[in-house]
Write a structure and sequence with these properties.
mainly alpha, 4 helices
Length: 110
């Protein structure tokens, strides 16, 4: 490709408005999910780990091994956790916020 010149400016690559808006919304939601995760979860799950049970980290492999595969599974586990995990009712964390946390976990810890 030739470098841009005064006569021939560089081409701009732009996304359609709906894609850009959707990407911006996704970033905002992930940022909100991260803030909520840090507020409610990071104490026991620092950097996606697990201070109570090293076999139940938030890594994709550990979650799948424990039959936690979707955002819905994560929210369900928040509502009805196993031994050692605090229960988060909808009055503690509303469903919309729980979903943001779940999406953040899925998108962050691989």
């Amino acid at each position: 490709t030739k470098p841009a010149t005064a006569e021939q400016p560089a081409k701009e690559v732009s996304q359609p408005a709906e894609k850009a808006d959707s990407g911006t919304a996704m970033v905002a939601e992930n940022t909100a999910g991260e803030a909520l995760f840090n507020e409610y979860c990071a104490v026991c799950h620092p950097k996606g780990g697990n201070i109570m049970n090293s076999k139940k980290t938030l890594s994709k492999a550990d979650m799948e091994a424990n039959n936690v595969k979707t955002a819905e599974d994560i929210v369900k586990l928040m509502r009805e956790p196993g031994p050692g995990m605090r229960k988060f009712s909808e009055s503690n964390i509303p469903d919309a916020d729980a979903g943001k946390i779940a999406d953040y976990i899925i998108n962050t810890f691989k």
